[in-house]
Amino acid sequence: MTLYIIHVYITLVWFVATNSLILKDELVSTKDWNLIGKFCFISNESLFSYKVSYPDSLKIQKFLIYYDDQWNNVRRKDKENNLNCEQKEKELPLSQAFELSAQNPSVGCAEETLNGIKSLSCSAKFRFSSIRPRYWFVVISKCGSNDVRLKYELEFTNGDNIFRKHFSADEFGILETSIALFLAYVIISIVCGIFAKILVVKSFFHLTIGLYIASVVLQLLSILFTMAEYGQFSQSGFITPGMLTTSRLFQAIGQIIFLFMLILVAKGYTITRNKLRVITWIKIGIFFAIYVITYALAFIFSEALYDPGQVNYYYSSPAGIALIIIKMTLGWVWFSYSIAFTIKNFPEKRVFYIVLLITFTIWFLIGPLLILICSNFILDYMRQFVGYLIEILVVFIGHFIFLILIRPTAENKLFPFHVRTTQICTSSNGCYPRHGENDGGNKQLGDARQNISDLFALSNTSSKYEYEEKKEETQPEVSGNQLQESN
What we know:
By secondary structure, this protein is α+β, with helices and mostly antiparallel strands. It has two domains: 22-158, Jelly Rolls (Sandwich); 170-406. The protein is built from twelve helices and nine strands. The protein has a five-stranded antiparallel β-sheet, with no helix packed on it. It has a four-stranded antiparallel β-sheet with strand order 2-8-4-5. Strand 6 (109-114) and strand 7 form a beta hairpin. The longest helix is centred in the middle third of the chain and has 30 residues, at 207-236. The chain is elongated, with a radius of gyration of 31 Å.
């Protein structure tokens, strides 16, 4: 019911549903060989249904159905030798080439006249059988002609299961995964809300925490759009234009914000310092300008250069590969260097930063490596789902790990923030931890551990940290009076 309500709302925004795996369109082309659809069928349960019509004056047109190996062979030969229509047809056995003619009983064609115009209308169903899932490509041809016209409605199905019926085999599992991750992000969002309330009350809600929560919410919206789209698609067979693009846009913005937050934390911002140098902000700006431009190019390549005759994957484009390289090299290297510099200057926080470095080094590297493996070694019909699974799980793991590290609970000895948002800090008043040569490096960390147990207890009294500060202020005066009396 929830998916249906979401679908009704989305339909009001993007009203027309087109470009789907129930393909309904009209072909008008000057080419004599035209691809009109593709689908990845599983064995035995696959069904291809069609209803087509075209003017009688343009007969005879043909249905050509290639499976993936044949299709790749034709494309390769076409690039090498520029095949003509007849040569492309010869790559198929007769059982996969159908003349759309009333004289061919297997294709279900009949002549009819409407408003004095003669036409041929055809409808039939075909079952596909193969030893493994295969892509099938549907082509309309009329060799030697520069006028090909066809009204068509094609329906591709994989059984009757709601999670499979309208889905190409390379999309199996995406809806179920989206539902599971959506529920997980709802839980994380609720926990973030609880933690945020605690941190606001205790004046520890810093900018970096706000950026983290914004990233989580954007990822939640991304999964919501994906789930809503695939949910309605499982029932209707039609894709709503813009839904998946909007989902990926939310995810991209969320990931950019999350990476920005990680760089700030690595620099020690709101943890060991309340200001960054102007040159540091300039470097951050340049890095994210490059990153955002590359992300935008990946979008453009995947949309504008989309090839319907190829099994496409988001990270197959040069911009997609560049995005992986930038994140894995520049992003991770800068993150690691910033942490090393912060530990050197503020060893009081080294335990937190060492844990952060180890966990997020794995996070930075594992995602791009798995995506590159998926792009090059996973079978085509599994690539879309596996790539989606890797991408969404890596994002989830990053959000989950950071939430664990900053959780405002008494047992969390790694809680990095000790300066309240209400404090005014300068380089001289010692709000942020400073390391002296004779301090041993761990004094501030020990103090933080001592105070953290009382930090989040709900009480009307002042915190232990504040009490000890007041005590330290009064002790020197008492000591001085005692010395005067003894003299």
